[in-house]
Write a structure and sequence with these properties.
Strand order of the largest sheet: 2-6-1-7-8
Number of helices: 10
Strand content: 15-25%
């Protein structure tokens, strides 16, 4: 890589492979990986654990004032406790879009995310990275896949984690609902930045997608 600041923004819908691909690129190019979705998931987990209604914006903002979310050695810490597995449970997945569409929550998260990107070469993934958070990024990618393929991946992942009370059709409905919420929310909706490279992972392996993106970055 040339000696210049590397800022990579990765966006896309749930289940497209953003996080897996971004982690591998971070390893190869020695970038700091920031999973913004994990930040919203961590806050959602705290909201659920405290029994707060996802529509109670006032209470959510109050607990957010006393919330710390950190990335340490590729692990996510919520208020000093590692929560990698907890934030991936289906109950969190089903509520995270409700929390992340709150304007005040997004503003605070965006401030945190931008600060994380200031000191290092980074790759950051989420829903509004190339359009809002890191609109100045020198490399932008929009990673997608068919909704059926994304549901299949999510269903397989949950089964492997031991969640049995689920069906493929249920997951398909949930992903379509989440897509609708993410794409139509008033604040920073999910959309492809005009200058982002489109990567469709439906019929590609993770390594094929990683190599495709790295080639684009290395070309400058």
């Amino acid at each position: 890589m040339v000696n210049k600041k590397i800022i990579v923004a990765v966006d896309g819908p749930a289940g497209a492979g953003k996080s897996t691909i971004s982690k591998k690129i971070a390893e190869v190019l020695k970038l700091e990986y920031i999973d913004t979705g994990a930040m919203y998931r961590a806050l959602t987990l705290k909201v659920i654990n405290k029994g707060i209604n996802p529509n109670d914006v006032k209470s959510i903002l109050e607990i957010m004032e006393d919330t710390t979310i950190e990335f340490i050695n590729n692990h996510v810490y919520l208020d000093g406790i590692k929560v990698d597995e907890e934030i991936r449970k289906n109950i969190v997945t089903n509520h995270v879009s409700e929390i992340s569409k709150i304007a005040e929550v997004r503003k605070k998260m965006v401030d945190m995310q931008r600060k994380l990107s200031e000191s290092n070469n980074v790759i950051m993934d989420g829903r509004d990275i190339g359009t809002v958070v890191l609109h100045h990024a020198n490399y932008k990618f929009f990673i997608t896949a068919s909704v059926e393929e994304r549901a299949r991946r999510r269903y397989k992942e949950l089964l492997e984690k031991g969640e049995k009370d689920i069906t493929y059709d249920q997951i398909l409905i949930e992903i379509k609902k989440r897509d609708e919420i993410d794409s139509t929310r008033e604040i920073a909706p999910l959309k492809k930045s005009p200058d982002a490279h489109l990567i469709d992972t439906t019929n590609k392996t993770i390594d094929e997608c990683v190599n495709e993106i790295i080639e684009i970055i290395e070309r400058g």
